[in-house]
Amino acid sequence: MILPILNSEITFLQFLPFDLPEPLISIIFLLIGASIIAVVASVLALVGVYLERKISAHMQDRLGPMEVGPHGIAQTFADAIKLLIKEDIVPQDADKLLHFIAPVMVFAATLAAFAVLPFSKTLVVSDLNIGLLYIIAISSFVVIGAILAGWASNNKWSLLGGMRSAAQIVSFEIPASLAVLSVIMIVGSMNLGDIVEYQKGGFFNWIIFKYFPFNFIAFIIYFIASLAEVNRAPFDLPEAESELIAGFHTEYSGMKWAMFFLAEYANMFLVGVVASTLFLGGWSSPFGDFLNSGPFPVFWIFIKSFSLIFVQIWIRWTLPRVRVDQLMYVSWKVLTPFAFVAILGVGIWMVL
Amino acid sequence: MNITLFDTIFYLLAFLTLGSAAIMVFSKNVIYSAVGLLFTFFGVAGIYVLLAADFVAVVQVLVYVGGILILLLFGVMLSNKITNIEITTETLHFLPASLVVIGIFVVLYRVFITTDWNPVGSYNFDPTTHEIGTLLMTDYLIPFEIASILLLGALIGAAYIARKD
Fold first, then answer.
1. Of the candidates A128, A106, A104, which has an alpha carbon nearest to the alpha carbon of residue A116?
2. Of A102, A171, A210, A295, whose CB neighbour count within 10 A is largest?
């Protein structure tokens, strides 16, 4: 896992004229890797924000941002710079420490999940053999961040938003994990790289078409549950603006607010990559060996995940928000039983 | 003294674990205790990773952070702040507490001195999931089944309590 990778990296640094102690070199490399993830994830989040604004505008027969750069391409970067220099307001009765920790925790957990995403055969920061479980586990920090943000703001809307977020994500984690389980059963590994390798060789090797229709059901369940996990409409109850102003981040401004915002869009990309890795062949080409080398794996994973992000945006600007009781109904009485049916179906079919 | 990367990470994690455990124990604010507990779990998970027990580490985070800690925070928040009752640890039960602490300390110390500690020379980061799965389905099948029946019972009990009528 981590230590063998570090050993190979240390040899890179032999050209330095002076000797650094070994722990320091390794830590420097870890920091470089982490910064690359942070930059990539933030840029992807900014692209996601731009896409959301453009697509929603065109769906409503508007133009969206047009002023900064051609077709407003630089608008989100300008917004990011604006947010960086905005005043940071902390409510007087807020819990200052937790008010600061919460957005950092949400953003850090999102970035941490990016570490195991495979963008090609070699382009993966940490090729963990339990990568899938790691993603599910690390996203629980996002929930805790949301709850703490809601509590620390000392605001009823924030608290209600935080509670809703916790209840929603904990409930939807169950169908999401169950839907993922059938993939693990088929591949026999939780390593995301292995899961992609299994699906190599074109469209019909994708897990979504294996044991039809059980894995198709699992994919739909995972997609719906992931919408709820990243607080996207129609499940955006934690920040329902017509009821709770902005939910758990009502009292946040400036860069702290931007962290929540960027984390949300980075999370959209994250679930897009995970869904396409699990069910749609990941970085492998949909045409067998055609265009499956060089930079193309990265191209395919981006095409697949951005298509899923497009569907997420499309759903957000088309469907109304569900109520809390409907949300729980969907999770416990619809998605969870169907997820069990999918697991059972795949399991029986595999034994036969 | 030769400090390797392994030692550095170990001491950082140990510091994180013990420091946040101290915050958890000594804090008067229940939410701060919960956050301290969060970082304690995280540090312990890190130490599991150092011991090449990746599956245990991730499951530790998944179950304790993703499940138990969220439930704990949820419960505290539902009762705190909204009703304006500050939940703090005010009463001190000195005698029973010290008895329990001394008891636990004696047991732990006995385990500590009777265990045959043999340092692991070389770490091999082999996948552990396959082995754990095989062992659960063969040697440890009965404990596994008993645990699942217990969980099923808890599930049915929770559903029964939550019923409207």
1. A128
2. A102
Residue B110 lies in a domain: no
3-state secondary structure of A304: helix
What are A131-143's pLDDT values in tens digits? 888 888 888 888 8
- Which residue among B3, B6, B62 sits closest to A137, beta carbon to beta carbon? B62
Look up the CATH number of the domain holding residue B83.
1.20.120.1200
Residue range of the domain that includes B56: 5-90
| Contact list, B77 vs chain A (CB under 8 Å) | 147, 150-151, 159, 162-163
Q: Does A328 touch chain B (CB under 8 A)?
A: no
Beta carbons of B49 and A1 less than 8 Å apart: yes
A1 contacts chain B (CB < 8 A): yes
**Taking a C-beta distance cutoff of 8 angstroms, is the pair A64, A56 a contact?**
yes
User: Is A53 within the bounds of a domain?
Assistant: no
Q: How far apart are CA A185 and CA A176, in angstroms?
A: 15
Mark yes or no for CB contact A136/B62 under 8 Å. yes
Residue A23: which of B3, B73, B82 has the nearest Cβ? B3
Across-strand partners of B29? B88
ipTM: 0.77
Give the residue numbers spanning the domain of A209: 92-351
CA angle A243, A144, A81 (to 5 degrees): 70
The predicted structure's pLDDT at residue B29: 75
Average pLDDT over residues B142-157: 92
User: Taking CB atoms and an 8 Å cutoff, what residues of chain A touch B52?
Assistant: 1
Tens digit of pLDDT for each residue in B39-63?
A: 898 899 888 888 777 888 888 888 8
